[in-house]
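Help needed: design a sequence for this.
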């Protein structure tokens, strides 16, 4: 009997704690988080209506909302488990399902798959669907792992393990925007250069491979820096100001090209660093050791 009373008291205490957690939430960060999910849902709707550029910009708007909600919660010291879970649920819509669906729809629109497609076209269509499914699956795993390993302390948000889902979505979105707003208008003109057709084909055929690469990087253990906390926040060297001005000039010159360079460059930068430190730097001491003990001829 005492054991039953103890267990009943524990259950009652847990119920009270759960009720208290759900009773008090921060309204403004939660509304911005929900805006993130709504923008992702709007992107899916626009993509289904073949409005690919608008769908891509809706995902970018979701990224802005995703940056603001966490920042507001930490500034107001109102971070909570509820906000983290809500953020991940909205992220899987905006940065998981929406980019994959956008990639799927734009490629189906361009290739024009139907029931009379050849076996090669059928294989290509299956590969695109597998790429989209793999992207969504890895995004879900990435978000679940982040929820388990995440710390609410601001000092812990200096880097990410694995490519963040907004950056992975940015790789797909930036290529779509570049294709829709730079390549297609130039190709529609009568005096379009011949290399533009090659560029369009390269982007279209590379899109599912970029999605697969982003999916692998999301579930990898490669560290990616937090751009705001590491390079912008606080006092920085004068060179950071020069880089920021060059970045702003690039955005003014061509925002489409800037988006491709930013997202694809960010995704590739940590891979290059990882390869350098894990492969090249480790190989040099081994080669030096071998050369040291190599007998003279």
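Sure. Designed sequence:
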């Amino acid at each position: 009997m005492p054991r039953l009373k103890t267990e009943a008291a524990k259950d009652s205490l847990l119920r009270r704690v759960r009720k208290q957690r759900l009773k008090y939430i921060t309204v403004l960060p939660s509304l911005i988080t929900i805006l993130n999910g709504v923008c992702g849902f709007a992107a899916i709707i626009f993509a289904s209506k073949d409005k690919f550029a608008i769908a891509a910009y809706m995902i970018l708007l979701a990224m802005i909302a995703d940056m603001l909600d966490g920042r507001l919660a930490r500034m107001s010291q109102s971070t909570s488990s509820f906000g983290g879970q809500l953020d991940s649920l909205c992220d899987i819509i905006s940065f998981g399902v929406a980019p994959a669906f956008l990639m799927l729809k734009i490629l189906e629109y361009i290739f024009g798959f139907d029931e009379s497609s050849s076996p090669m076209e059928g294989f290509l269509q299956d590969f695109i669907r597998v790429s989209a499914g793999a992207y969504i699956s890895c995004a879900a795993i990435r978000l679940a792992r982040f929820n388990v390993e995440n710390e609410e302390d601001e000092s812990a948000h200096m880097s990410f393990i694995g490519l963040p889902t907004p950056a992975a979505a940015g790789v797909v979105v930036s290529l779509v925007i570049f294709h829709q707003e730079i390549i297609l208008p130039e190709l529609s003109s009568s005096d379009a250069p011949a290399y533009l057709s090659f560029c369009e084909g390269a982007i279209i055929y590379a899109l599912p491979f970029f999605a697969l690469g982003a999916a692998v990087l999301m579930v990898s253990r490669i560290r990616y820096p937090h751009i705001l906390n590491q390079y912008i926040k606080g006092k920085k060297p004068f060179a950071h100001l020069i880089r920021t001005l060059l970045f702003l000039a690039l955005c003014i010159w061509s925002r489409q090209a800037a988006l491709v360079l930013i997202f694809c460059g960010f995704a590739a930068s940590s891979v290059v660093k990882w390869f350098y430190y894990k492969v090249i730097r480790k190989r040099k001491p081994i080669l030096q050791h071998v050369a040291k003990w190599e007998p003279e001829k």
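The CA atoms of residues 10 and 16 lie 10 Å apart.
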